[in-house]
Specification:
Elements: E1 15-22, H1 43-58, E2 62-71, H2 79-91, E3 99-104, H3 111-119, E4 124-130, H4 134-140, H5 146-158, E5 164-170, H6 177-189, E6 194-199, H7 207-213, H8 221-237, E7 240-244, E8 247-250, H9 271-277, E9 283-285, E10 290-293, E11 296-300, H10 304-312, E12 318-323, H11 326-338, E13 344-345, H12 346-353, H13 357-360, H14 362-370, E14 374-376, E15 380-383, H15 385-389, H16 391-398
Parallel strand pairs: 1-2, 1-9, 2-3, 3-4, 4-5, 5-6
Antiparallel strand pairs: 6-8, 7-8, 10-11, 11-12, 13-15, 14-15
The structure holds iron/sulfur cluster.
Iron/sulfur cluster binds near residues 105 and 128.
Length: about 400
């Protein structure tokens, strides 16, 4: 006689956050170390077929409150590809997330695509602008022009998008303070609901890194600091409030009901990223995508060819998976959370990790407070505005092995 299987007394919690990596770009930017490349032959079609399979594999456990299509350049996918992907999400009841973001490049936004995405429930677009100076756009190897940025914003607004974000970069080689201010002012005048601003980083194996190594330009740390300070000042004056080192969101917008946001962040904060920083589980689909589910961090292979082969055979294309010891995971979350202006409320940290931030990290907190980089409030620990400028260094102290 066969024993009947034991009923699963504790059904697995649904995963509320879904990331999809689209690994194609029409041209590789000079600074980019993300996994992306120009598509060859029928690669996009094969990728979409594979993604449809992979969506089916995670769908039973996925009830997304946030969906984020990043890359790469998701807006490079054609209308038919998007129709297939959206139909698959609909078939698995994965549409209707409170926040559904698609990253777009200004060179690949069309009215038809924008309307299709909006009508299917995509309600947020994040656009990689980087600069509004033609010379710097060329320096970075971007494929779009400044006029395409303005045109794309109009197209997206006309299609009904009322939650737009743009990405900018500062400390670009050759970017004087005057050039940065000009881009910043013009970008803020676009009136988007969200802004992300990153300092150029020099990743190995990128042309920009090679140029730096070859001495073709110098890094001016002082200028980078001054540009960051100007950013925080001007964004705030324009109603975009900093809630993370590189991210700014509007609290409200006239005539618009703001989306329900998590505590401690402006209404138009990116909920998907806040979920990462607060340590929520998420699925990651597509080549090179990472995910964190049930205490296990894993990553798909950074190869579109291997990803497609695997997914079409009905398997996820995992390259590695590791279960982090609880203290290591707590250290990672302590570090992520410090990047947010709100820092870590002690009770929220204890609920998420099981550790008391004030005990395990007492020495680190004392060190950061002593340097003027951190402040301990009755309910939380957070970085000061000066500390946020050095958030990476501060965050490193919080890591545990
Ligand atoms: S568009 Fe984005 S993902 Fe593509 S190469 Fe440029 S920086 Fe990298």
């Amino acid at each position: 006689m066969h024993a009947s299987p034991k009923p699963d007394l504790q059904p697995a919690e649904p995963i509320r956050h879904l990331y999809v990596h689209v690994p194609f770009c029409s041209h590789k930017c000079e600074y980019c170390a993300f996994y992306s490349a120009p598509a060859k032959g029928d690669q996009i079609q094969r990728y979409v077929e594979a993604l449809v399979r992979e969506i089916g594999l995670v769908a039973p456990r996925c009830r997304p409150e946030t969906v984020f299509f990043g890359g790469g350049t998701p807006s490079l996918l054609g209308i038919q590809h998007w129709e297939t992907i959206l139909a698959t999400l609909r078939q698995h009841a994965l549409l209707g997330a409170a926040e559904f973001t698609v990253e777009c490049n200004p060179a690949t936004v069309s009215s038809d695509k924008a309307r299709l995405l909006r009508s299917a429930g995509v309600n947020r677009v994040s656009m990689g602008v980087q600069s509004l100076d033609e010379g710097l756009l060329e320096r970075l190897g971007r494929v779009h022009s400044r006029s395409q940025v303005f045109k794309s914003i109009d197209i997206l607004r006309d299609a009904g998008f009322d939650n737009l974000s743009i990405d900018l970069m500062f400390a670009i080689p050759g970017q004087t303070m005057a050039l940065w201010e000009a881009t910043l002012d013009e970008a803020l005048a676009l009136g988007t609901e969200h802004l992300s601003c990153y300092e150029v980083i020099y990743e190995e194996d990128t042309p920009l890194y090679e140029q730096l190594k070859a001495g073709r330009f110098d890094v001016d740390e002082e200028l980078a600091c001054a540009q960051y300070d100007r950013l925080v000042e001007r964004a705030d004056a324009a109603g975009l409030h900093q809630y993370e080192v590189a991210n700014f969101g509007r609290a409200a917008r006239a005539g618009l009901t703001p989306p329900a946001s998590p505590p401690d962040v402006p209404a138009f904060a990116c909920r998907h990223n806040v979920a990462y920083w607060r340590g929520h589980d998420f699925f990651g689909l597509g080549p090179s995508a990472s995910e964190y589910v049930d205490g296990v961090r894993s990553r798909n292979r950074a190869s579109t060819v291997l990803y497609v082969e695997s997914a079409l055979r009905g398997h996820r294309a995992k390259e590695f998976a590791e279960a982090l010891p609880p203290l290591a995971r707590a250290g990672e979350l302590a570090a992520f959370g410090l990047r947010m202006n709100a820092g870590w409320p002690f009770d929220a940290f204890a609920r998420r990790t099981g550790y008391d931030l004030r005990e395990e990290w007492a020495d680190d907190i004392a060190f950061l407070v002593g340097r003027g980089w951190g402040e301990c409030l009755p309910d939380r620990f957070r970085l000061t505005p000066r500390g946020l400028r050095f958030a990476d260094t501060a965050a490193e102290r919080m890591l545990r092995t």
